[in-house]
Each structure stands twice: as structure tokens, then as C-alpha cells.
Design a protein that fits this description.
This protein has 1 helix and 17 strands. By secondary structure, the protein is mainly β. It has a 7-stranded antiparallel beta sheet, with no helix packed on it. A 6-stranded antiparallel beta sheet has the order 6-16-9-10-11-12, with no helix packed on it. The chain is globular and about 45 Å long.
């Protein structure tokens, strides 16, 4: 059984566009006993960095691990540490905080990229998947000059966004809300409504240029 073409067109594997992808048995990440690779956030004003241990070999972190840049060739996968948290097939990186409650807001500078995904994913999501293609991740995708909301291979066009230099992400864990925010107008453009049950991480996919994250921010007044 293959992915719907509408979702597959937005999926990139090892730097190439995939038009079909066979479904195979997916494994959640299993961390060594007694090891916690990221801390857990229990309040608001989430502050995080990008976690190099999760980053695909085509992604380089910069600016004290708050930014990520895509390099088409990247590193030889054998030259990066082999650990269960790392994405091996997909150009994805997670933030280094787990979120299990609270209302959180962060922003991402996107002006130097033409293809990316921003959102959240379950901390132990299978590393064999790309964010947005399973039921463990919820992302806002920008590709081919258009915005989409993606989860579980379902792709919904998001209109009236354009290509801003910077966007916001609002997560309300208890309310089950994930929103894409227009930072200039301080309004929510599109939302997911989800019953979150397990810890989440900020999640990023990148196939062009660079992204810069801004966390520890106060939520803009008036967001609902």
C-alpha cells in the first residue's frame, strides 16, 4: 500500500522527492535504559535548542544550536554518531525539550528557506518516518510556494499566509491545540485540534536553506 500521491509529493527522502513510499513496520525510538536525552518542560515560556543527536546528517546546527542549515551532500552517515534518536532517512531535527503540559509559543525565521516543516512530534516517534506523514506528528509545511498542514499523510492547504520572514508556533497541550501564527498581525492562521497523550518535541524538517528558532518568548496578546 503506497502513500497518497498528494502527500508523497511533499515528502523528501535523502534529498530526493519521493512520489511513492511503501508502508513498512515502524518502530518507535527505544532509548537505552536510564538515559534521558532531553529534559522535560512543565511550564510556559518554553526555551529549547535543537538536539544534534536527532539531526539527519544533511543538517548542520549553528548559532548555539538554535539554527539549522541544509547541505545537499551533508556528511557521510557513517561519520555521525550512531544513536537511536537520529533520523537516518529524513532531513529532520527535534528540539531538546519534551513538552507534557502547558501553553507554549516560539517563532522561526524562515526567510532563507523555500522548503521546510515546522510543528511538533511525539518524542519517541519512529525515526523511519518523516514529520507530517504519521499520526505522531503535526506540522505546517512550506513547499512549491504554498503552505500546507500535514499529519498522518493528510495534506490540507493553508491559505492567506504568503511567505513571511518569520512565523510563530503556538502549542496548548491540555487544550489540544497547535497553531500557525502570523507574527505581524498576532493572529492564528491555521490550527490542529488533537488530544495529546504523550510528551512532544518541537520538530523541524528542512530541504533548502536555513531556519532559525526563537524560544523562551512571551505569547502575543490576543491569541485564542
Amino acid at each position: 500500500m503506497a502513500m497518497p500521491v498528494s502527500a508523497a509529493r511533499l515528502c523528501r527522502l535523502a534529498g530526493r522527492t519521493v512520489t511513492s513510499l511503501s508502508v513498512r513496520h515502524k518502530r518507535a525510538v527505544s532509548l537505552p535504559e536510564g538515559r534521558c536525552y532531553i529534559s522535560t518542560s512543565t511550564g510556559n515560556n518554553l526555551q529549547f535548542r535543537l538536539d544534534e543527536r536527532t539531526a539527519h546528517s544533511s543538517l548542520d546546527l549553528f548559532k548555539k544550536d538554535t539554527g539549522v542549515i541544509y547541505r545537499m551532500l551533508g556528511l557521510d552517515p557513517s561519520h555521525v554518531q550512531d544513536n537511536p534518536e537520529r533520523f537516518r532517512d529524513w532531513a529532520v531535527v527535534f528540539g531538546d525539550e519534551k513538552i507534557s503540559n502547558g501553553r507554549h509559543y516560539w517563532e522561526v525565521t524562515v526567510k532563507k528557506s523555500r522548503e521546510f516543516r515546522l510543528g511538533v512530534a511525539e518524542a519517541l516517534m519512529s525515526r523511519e518516518d518523516c514529520v507530517g506523514t504519521n499520526s505522531s506528528s503535526w506540522v505546517f509545511s512550506y513547499a512549491h510556494g504554498k503552505w500546507f498542514a500535514m499529519t498522518n499523510n493528510k495534506v490540507v492547504p493553508v491559505t492567506l499566509v504568503g511567505k513571511p520572514d518569520r512565523v510563530g508556533i503556538l502549542l496548548d497541550y491540555e487544550a489540544g491545540l497547535l497553531g500557525l501564527v502570523d507574527v505581524e498581525k498576532a493572529t492564528i492562521i491555521h490550527t490542529f485540534r488533537v488530544q495529546f497523550k504523550v510528551p512532544l518535541c518541537p520538530a523541524f524538517g528542512l530541504w533548502d536553506g536555513e531556519l532559525l528558532t526563537h524560544s523562551g518568548l512571551e505569547e502575543p496578546a490576543g491569541l485564542k
